[in-house]
Write a structure and sequence with these properties.
Number of helices: 5
Radius of gyration: 28 Å
Structural class: alpha+beta
Shape: elongated
Helix content: 25-40%
Number of strands: 6
Strand order of the largest sheet: 1-2-3-4
Amino acid sequence: MLKKLLLVIVFLFGTLLFGAGEYDKDIVVKNQSRNDKVKTVFREMMNAYEEEDLNKFFSYVSEDRFLQDYMTFYEAIEQDIRTYDILSVDTWVNKITDDGVKRFLYVQWEKRYLATNNDEEITKRGYSRFLFDEVNGKYKLIELAGNHFWGGSLPEWREEVPKIAGQVEEKSEALLPDLTVEIVSCISGNLSFK
């Protein structure tokens, strides 16, 4: 009886002594939905963009499956980092749609930044679509569309990004005003104009 009791005590002591480290492990969520994975990747990309970490940012972009010119996109992000100091970026995911494994992420956003050449504060708003595909078990960006959330500083990239329904129309100095009034004469209280 004493042997059994001593064996139980040694067993319990050993379990407590050596088993304590079992609880110091990282928790990995395995039951994450595809939509959750895409949101996580997008959030990580935004953080890398704000931190100006090109390597981390492009670790979430598929070079092989990217549907637009990968090098132009790389140059556009590099140009953004040189041209702007990001102050804040706010995003709202409007919806996620799927095409099999691929996920379309529709995002409404507002970005505030300083232009480094003249310290002018700029605020832009937009609506963009990001297409993600699963590559070796991880989601990676393969296409952008809509307003220029990333890479808007490079004209070649702006030309490459297709428009989408619902995107915010960007102001252009080349647009004519809605109404022009020219006063022709004002004689004795009568005003005539065209």
